[in-house]
Amino acid sequence: MHAVRLGEDLSSGKHWTRAAALTDRASSAVTCDNLELPDRTKLPTFISSIYKMSTITTPALQTSYPPILPKSFNANQPKTIRLFPLSNYTFGTKETQPEEDPSVLARLKRLEEHYVEHGMRRTCEGILVCHEHNHPHILMLQIANAFFKLPGDYLKPEDDEVEGFKQRLNERLAPVGTQFSGEGVNEEWEIGDTLAQWWRPNFETFMYPFIPAHVTRPKECKKLYYIQLPRQKVLSVPKNMKLLAVPLFELYDNTARYGPQLSAIPHLLSRYNFEFVDEKGDVVAVTPGGGPEEGYVPKTIVLAGGDDETMGEADIKEENGVQ
Length: 323
Hints:
Elements: H1 43-50, E1 81-83, E2 90-94, H2 104-118, E3 121-132, E4 135-143, E5 147-149, E6 152-154, H3 161-173, E7 191-200, E8 220-227, E9 234-238, E10 241-247, H4 248-251, H5 255-263, H6 265-269, E11 274-277, E12 283-286, E13 301-305, H7 313-319
Parallel strand pairs: 1-11, 2-9, 3-8
Antiparallel strand pairs: 3-4, 3-6, 4-5, 4-10, 7-8, 10-13, 11-12
């Protein structure tokens, strides 16, 4: 078996294998099992067939053999979402925002009091997406160095859904006063599609993406919305929290760490096609997109915050919905 880089002499008819599905675009080492190349003149057709499903935009191509694109496969799709690079955003910190409840039990007790007085609690959380190396990353908060949550919170009983949600996002992520200036400081939140609804049937930690058949009076409904980030924005996180950029790769099927709600986000976003924009504003990749740069492995990035508070391991697991 022999991996041959593009540009090498391929006339010798060496055996190939496809070994670089996630390496550097068209300059990857591309190989195929038990396939002989008896004639160098067949190379362009061979290379085109390898990259047939690549959708790297024309300006970003790094090969002289552009791919053969299939017919359109976008029927009945929602609108394509444009993602901007993580480096476009500015991150800072602001004063600590202590959690309202010292424990999960205290939080459930307060939920019960809310239900008795106001009925079902309405909670709104936002899915904010940017990209790093053409891979979607979700912005989320980390509390006590282990408990993860999306930006947002429960609404006050008198709040309008959308306007109340914007206020909660500002409380969590908006910069304070004149801490920053310029584009993206006072940008209005753009609340997009509702991606999921999670229901709490009883005064307990578990929530479900459906209402169980025997439940007629759910105690809480949590809605997850897609938040369209602008080209630039300034975000400030309380000092007792961390703001993380978590790749979809890390979230997918990882209920042990993130719980069922957050680990389901890749499923929720799979209905969308993405355009990945670079710092210059050029679209460099589209769904399914080009591979990351050679040697790059998607990982969680700490953006701001980090004055950790202590929380018991049992409380952390309950908050994340992990049994």
